[in-house]
């Protein structure tokens, strides 16, 4: 089943278009990552999907229900982009108030279970004003899932957190998926998205420029493969010939004995490079192929 | 709606401002009713005047300072949450109409309880509860709450509604009473949208005040539905 579907979703402020016609689909039980630089339109998109702002044009549906629809709000959970909480309320009071608002009043036991899930069970009665930034983020996730939604929106869930807290939240996100939730998250952290998300979309200037699974994105970028070869000494008489051949075989050639690094456009080129070394009477000792990381893909876009 | 209303209602009982307003209402009710007994024994009044004398103090207080009290306590009922972005929690969980109506309901219940207690105090002296005067008072309070909610939706900055609540609270009764009695045709028509015109008449025309309050609430909801949080 499709959890999110958008068709030509647009948002403009006056003459300035922020989101310029977005089409994408998120399937159920996916972790869908949305990447983009600041101002790319990620938060605007999440705000449109969650009913915080109205789209200028286009349509979207959440869990098969055309939006905006107040009934579907009970089936989605939202963690806003930064810790916006009621400083005078405790964690437990937050959970009780916001679950009741979602139409599923949570009892004390369920609230404690959710707080235990996010690791805040010891702070249930503490006022949020005394919470650290990381604790607020965790409570944000607890609030997003307190009414047991099918679809969870997480806007930059680990931004501003230290490494340990970020890892804890990443673990939480994985556990949410194991519980059958669909997760739509935005992030600046490329490594995090690469590790967590089953599918990724890259947004630039209000448009999706690339989307797919990590393997699909890699396959698209595999035309530029970076190869690092460790070789035995090349006889002096062969060096010039080999260098000339390598220059014609690829780009970004770096020679730093006993290593040669080269970027090729085709996987088949790697075998040709190995043969070229052998023909020049040098042994290839090690071949390292660098897969394009999400960072490479992102920066390229 | 009820969840938001309950929270708004409970939060109004917390804080020094609310306690001061409740104390003023109760003290005014007690002493005006007590003083009314003294007036009844010392001054010759018509039957109608004598009948309503116990509630004069409370009604006078609400006519002159009711808007100031209500706006003072609830001027930021909507815009505070929008400003602090906690409104995002609400709009992603329930309908915007529920939010506006819930806020209104919470404030209305707070004033309903306060006025019930005030009228009970008065009834100890008057030996009766005047439902008609109570209904008139509630219509006035309903109007003032709707106006406060509308202003809180219209103006995004809580600091500005705080200032405006003082200005409106002080000028509202003065201008309201002026338009009721003025013969200036350019402004006299505005008396139909103020509560004073209907309260001055001793019939059931005060029910129109509830309609005007409903219209203001409708506009507040209409604007809030289009507002970004």
Describe the fold and architecture:
The complex is a heterodimer of chains A (301) and B (229). Chain A has 301 residues and is of the alpha/beta class. Chain A has 2 domains: 2-212, P-loop containing nucleotide triphosphate hydrolases (Rossmann fold, 3-Layer(aba) Sandwich), CATH 3.40.50.300; 223-300, YebC, transcriptional regulation domain (Alpha-Beta Plaits, 2-Layer Sandwich), CATH 3.30.70.980. Helix content of chain A is 35%, strand content 30%. Chain A has helices at residues 42-49, 91-101, 108-117, 133-145, 163-178, 190-196, 214-221, 236-249, 268-279, 294-300, and strands spanning 2-13, 16-27, 31-36, 57-62, 65-66, 76-79, 151-155, 182-187, 199-204, 207-212, 225-231, 251-256, 259-264, 284-290. In chain A, the strands form 3 sheets. A 6-stranded mixed β-sheet of chain A has the order 6-7-8-3-9-10, with helices on both faces. In chain A, helix 2 (91-101) packs across helix 3. The longest helix of chain A has 16 residues, at 163-178. The mean pLDDT of chain A is 87. With 229 residues, chain B is mainly alpha-helical. Chain B starts with a helix and ends with a helix. Chain B has 12 helices and no strands. The mean pLDDT of chain B is 87. In chain B, 80% of the residues lie in helices and 0% in strands. Chain B has one domain (2-226). The interface between A and B is medium-sized, with 23 and 18 residues. Chain A: InterPro entries: AAA+_ATPase, ABC_transporter-like_ATP-bd, ABC_transporter-like_CS, ABC_transporter_ATP-binding, DrrA1/2-like_C, P-loop_NTPase. Chain A: Keywords: ATP-binding, Nucleotide-binding, Transport. Chain A: This is ABC transporter domain-containing protein.
């Amino acid at each position: 089943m499709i959890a999110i579907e958008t068709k030509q979703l647009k948002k403009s402020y006056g003459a300035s278009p922020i989101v310029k016609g977005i089409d994408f689909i998120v399937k159920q039980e996916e972790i869908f990552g949305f990447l983009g630089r600041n101002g790319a339109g990620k938060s605007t998109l999440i705000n449109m999907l969650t009913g915080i702002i109205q789209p200028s044009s286009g349509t979207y549906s959440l869990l098969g229900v055309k939006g905006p629809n107040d009934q579907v709000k009970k089936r989605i959970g939202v963690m806003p982009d930064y810790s916006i909480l009621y400083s005078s309320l405790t964690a437990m009071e937050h959970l009780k108030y916001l679950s009741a608002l979602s139409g599923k009043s949570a009892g004390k036991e369920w609230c404690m279970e959710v707080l235990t899930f996010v690791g805040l069970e010891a702070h249930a009665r503490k006022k949020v004003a005394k919470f650290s930034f990381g604790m607020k983020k965790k409570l944000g996730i607890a609030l997003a899932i307190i009414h047991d939604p099918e679809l969870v929106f997480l806007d930059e869930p680990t931004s501003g957190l230290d490494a340990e807290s970020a890892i804890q939240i990443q673990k939480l996100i994985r556990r949410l998926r194991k519980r059958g939730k669909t997760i739509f998250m935005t992030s600046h952290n490329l490594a995090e998205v690469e590790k967590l998300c089953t599918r990724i979309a890259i947004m630039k200037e209000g448009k999706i420029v690339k989307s797919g699974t990590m393997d699909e994105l890699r396959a698209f970028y595999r035309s530029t493969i970076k190869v690092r070869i460790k070789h035995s000494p090349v006889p002096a008489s062969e060096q010039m010939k080999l260098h000339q051949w390598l220059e014609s075989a690829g780009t970004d050639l770096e020679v730093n004995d006993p290593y040669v690094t080269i970027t090729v456009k085709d996987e088949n080129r790697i075998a040709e490079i190995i043969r070229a070394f052998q023909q020049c009477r040098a042994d290839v000792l090690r071949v390292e192929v660098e897969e394009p990381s999400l960072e490479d893909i992102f920066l390229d876009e | 709606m009820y969840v938001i209303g309950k929270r708004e209602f409970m939060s109004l009982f917390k804080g020094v401002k609310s306690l001061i307003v409740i104390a003023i209402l109760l003290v005014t009710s007690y002493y005006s009713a007590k003083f009314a007994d003294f007036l009844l024994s010392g001054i010759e009044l018509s039957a109608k005047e004598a009948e309503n004398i116990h509630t004069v103090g409370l009604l006078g207080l609400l006519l002159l300072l009711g808007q100031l009290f209500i706006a003072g306590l609830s001027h930021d009922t909507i815009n505070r949450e929008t400003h602090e972005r906690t409104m995002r929690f609400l709009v992603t969980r329930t309908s915007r109409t529920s939010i506006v109506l819930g806020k209104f309901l919470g404030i209305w219940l707070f004033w309903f309880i306060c006025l019930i207690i005030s009228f009970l105090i008065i009834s100890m002296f008057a030996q009766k509860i005047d439902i008609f005067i109570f209904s008139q008072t509630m219509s006035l309070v309903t109007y003032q709450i709707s106006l406060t909610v509308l202003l809180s939706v219209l103006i995004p900055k809580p600091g500005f509604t705080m200032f405006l609540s003082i200005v409106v609270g002080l000028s509202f009764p003065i201008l309201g009473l002026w338009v009721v009695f003025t013969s200036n045709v350019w402004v006299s028509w505005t008396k139909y949208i103020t509560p004073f015109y209907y309260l001055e008449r001793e019939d059931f025309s005060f029910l129109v005040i509830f309609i005007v309050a409903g219209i203001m609430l409708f506009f507040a909801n209409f604007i809030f539905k289009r507002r970004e949080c």
